[in-house]
Design a protein that fits this description.
- The chain has about 575 residues and is mainly α.
- About 70% of the residues lie in helices and about 0% in strands.
- The chain is built from 25 helices and no strands.
- Helix 3 crosses helix 13, helix 4 runs parallel beside helix 8 and helix 10 runs antiparallel to helix 13.
- The longest helix is centred in the first third of the chain and has 34 residues.
- The radius of gyration is 25 Å and the shape is globular.
């Protein structure tokens, strides 16, 4: 018997261990969604659509759906304009400092949406500390311009422009220089080359990025909650939140229908995204792999100045306004050297029990989610790569679902699933455990994809040799796969931590007294009028995020290609 066949025989004998890994992953990825479907369609009352028809027929539902589609659609247009402009210039031209530009463009996406809304609220309106300090504040009593559909759409567009950028840049890098050279030989010049060659080939990637952005904006809770609730402008996520907070678990059947409504629209967007991504490489087969690179010539410096000024306007200005608000003695007071104080920072970080508890809860949940998912992702990625079957293909697809669906849909699904555990009287609702389970379901794909990229690059010969020498599956994973996949797993863990530590959409519906997270506390502080404290807490979180992103950026040269999403 050859070494390869012997190793294969040993490996196949251990395949009975694979279901022990796949079954829990399938349950956590699909179980809550199935429970939501059962509740929405009245499975316990004989599978009826009467309740769903009643909820969908209400004026409040139609109004919230219209508002959601309007703000998500307008926000997507803004994201496409911003993301496409950056993608075309960064991917196709000789602009300088590309890494720094991309890093700064990614920061708004990493900052929680409620902090984005809070920061921009400090830039506009009559109570803006920044405008008061500069003597530009409108008179007291003037409306806050962001409390509107336009304000919500603007911030949704800024928040999610990076999604369009990342998707479109990946497609643009597939366009070989041969096509442009052929067009130039045929007499095409300047805008004609871009309009007739580059743009048509990039449309599938651009449309795919727009679909992803629309789905993400549709389920965004932080921005519509911060800007829409004060203006009585409801979207589907905020309608679900308000109904659940005011009525409690008694309205779960109703909010389940609303969650399914969001999920249906989101799934249509995901399907459109997958369809368009399949067509991304159309027309490029057999051409040279040399990427397209265009010279900006004399326009390079003005383009660079314009891009950096734009980043300063959407990043530096709102964060500076947020920081200024955090160091004033009382909200609405102009900032000066004589009254600047760190009292709010000291109160938030060292004295307030609720904020200290929220920091502890968020750090604990984010760390636990990162560690657990890292332990699951390495063997799961190995199984998907080395034991392809219909089961592994289904799992590989399922893990995308909880992340693709809006967070509010997953939160309602988790409440329904864990409000009372089957065959017991135990409830997880209002505990940290239910939030952790929701995080595990939502962020599994964030951890899995970088690890899959690393495992896919490993030569199976090393594992086969170890199997031939008698090493069992667990030892091979521990001594061969894990060390080689560790850098990618670490990058995935940091991405999970960054995403989970400031999560709001899921935790806003799952928290209870004692289980507050940072996103919930910021929203609560601003909602109760304690804006200075909210600004101090938000500023500290932004600092933490930028620090962690910087660590990932510095470690990127030692990580497998594709582990850090904002790098080539």
């Amino acid at each position: 018997m050859s070494v390869r066949s012997f190793a294969t025989t040993i490996s196949r004998s251990q395949d009975r261990l694979i279901p022990l890994l796949l079954l829990p992953v399938a349950l956590i990825a699909l179980g809550p969604i199935l429970r939501l479907l059962a509740e929405g369609f009245g499975f316990g009352q004989g599978l009826t659509l009467s309740h769903a028809t009643e909820v969908l027929g209400r004026d409040s539902t139609r109004i919230a759906l219209g508002h959601s589609l309007l703000t998500a659609g307008a926000g997507t247009v803004i994201s496409v304009l911003i993301g496409a402009a950056f993608a075309f210039v960064v991917a196709l031209t000789d602009i300088r400092a590309k890494a720094a530009l991309v890093f700064c463009l990614m920061i708004p996406m990493m900052i929680p949406p409620q902090i984005t809304a809070l920061a921009w609220m400090q830039v506009t309106g009559p109570s803006s500390v920044l405008l008061k300090t500069l003597g530009l504040a409108p008179p007291l009593g003037s409306p806050q311009p962001l409390y509107s559909s336009g304000g919500i759409a603007l911030l949704l567009g800024l928040q999610h422009a990076s999604i369009v950028f990342l998707t479109l840049r990946a497609g643009l890098r597939l366009i070989p220089a041969d096509l442009v050279e052929a067009a130039r030989i045929s007499g095409a010049r300047g805008p004609r080359v871009w309009a007739q060659v580059v743009l048509p080939l990039s449309l599938p990637s651009l449309a795919a990025g727009a679909a992803m952005t629309f789905v993400t904006a549709l389920g965004n809770f932080g921005i519509p909650a911060m800007l829409g609730i004060p203006a009585r402008y409801s979207t589907l996520p905020t309608l679900i939140y308000q109904r659940l907070v005011s009525m409690g678990p008694s309205v779960l059947p109703e909010v389940a229908v609303l969650a399914l409504l969001i999920g249906t629209v989101a799934i249509l967007g995901v399907l459109a995204n997958r369809l368009l991504l399949r067509r991304r490489a159309y027309g490029l087969v057999g051409l040279s792999g040399r990427p397209l690179s265009l010279s900006l010539g004399r326009a390079r410096l003005p383009v660079e100045i314009g891009f950096w000024l734009f980043l300063a306007a959407i990043l530096v200005v709102p964060l500076a306004a947020l920081l200024a608000t955090s160091v004033i003695p009382a909200y609405g007071v102009p900032l000066s050297l004589s009254n600047a104080t760190l009292h709010a920072w000291h109160e938030v970080l060292f004295r307030q029990p609720v904020t200290l508890r929220a920091y502890g809860n968020s750090l604990l949940l984010a760390t636990a989610a990162a560690v657990i998912l890292m332990a699951v992702a390495v063997p799961l990625a190995w199984v998907i790569a080395r034991r392809p079957s219909w089961g592994t293909r289904v799992i590989d697809t399922l893990v995308d679902l909880p992340y693709a669906l809006p967070g509010v849909v997953l939160a309602i699904a988790c409440i329904l699933s864990f409000l009372r555990l089957p065959f017991t009287q135990v409830t997880l609702y209002g505990t940290l455990t239910i939030i952790l389970l929701a995080y595990l379901s939502r962020f599994l794909v964030v951890m899995l994809r970088p690890v899959q990229a690393a495992v896919g690059q490993l030569d199976p010969a090393m594992e086969e040799a170890a199997a031939a020498a008698g090493a069992r599956l667990g030892r091979r994973l521990r001594t061969i796969v894990l060390p080689l996949a560790a850098p990618a797993a670490a990058a995935g863990a940091i991405l999970v931590f960054l995403t989970a530590v400031n999560e709001l959409t899921v935790s806003a519906l799952l928290w209870a007294a004692g289980t507050e997270t940072l996103g919930v506390v910021i929203f609560s502080l601003e909602d109760s009028g304690d804006t200075v404290m909210a600004a101090a807490l938000a500023s500290s979180i932004v600092g933490l995020i930028v620090l962690l992103m910087g660590m990932v950026q510095l470690a990127a040269p030692r990580l497998p290609k594709g582990c850090v999403p904002w790098l080539d």
